[in-house]
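User: Protein folding is very new to me. Would you mind checking the protein record under this note? It all follows right here:
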Amino acid sequence: MAGEAERSPAVTRSIRVLGLLEQAGDTALGVSEMARQLSVARSSLFNICLALEAEGLIARSAGGYRLGRRLVELGGAYLRGVDPVQAFYQACNETPLLHDEICQLAVLDGTDVLYLAAHAGRMPLRMTASIGSRFPASITAVGNALLARLDDAEIRRRFADPATRPGWTERSVTDLDALVAKIARVRERGYGRDLGEVFPGVRGLALVVAPQYSGEQAYALGTSLMEERCDDALEARAVAALDAMARRIANPMNLAADPHDTAMRDARDAGR
């Protein structure tokens, strides 16, 4: 790789120019300043900037150059090819705290959650939710995180039938008023939490991956931890790791944040 970079210095310097402008943010950088920071001749960098400008990758403005609109088009093309399930597995494998844990990606379907992806991890905990599995949204962490996006009236309508609120363990919340109150706490806390409601001794944590487009169905990203070793400190670290994974899976170019997701994130940040 080093040899290839040495044989294409113009490409390497072009990438470094884009990196400098990314770091500069709203501040335009002149050719002389970029040449100084990159330790290259100004004449050489000037030609590179002309080529990048011609392709729309950078744009001239008062005081120098900024990133160009062509990068938005390229970023959009990349994002259209990103599969959230594939992004989920990659994020699981590359997140140190959770790559050994059980993680799930799910969507809300009526009163159930449907699991789209499941990462087995390496911990001694039997895999309980496989791809295509359905679990009650009322008692799962991923389900609670997704239900927090609904208002109380919709939750009461959707879960009016007691059959939609099964009790899998003695800790399962089966009362409708108690369910509405629990979801209110999820909104305040900023993430879903299942303390042995699905399986005894297992703590589930989950939060929502912001939808990529307005009106698109939201995903929930969750993890299952052994209750005996999951204290408040580990929970906080796990939620932070899930938050980082969720941001990675979500479309980073979605500038119009959903108000539910913004409120949930603010609640998480306030609790840290």
The two ends are 41 Å apart (CA to CA).
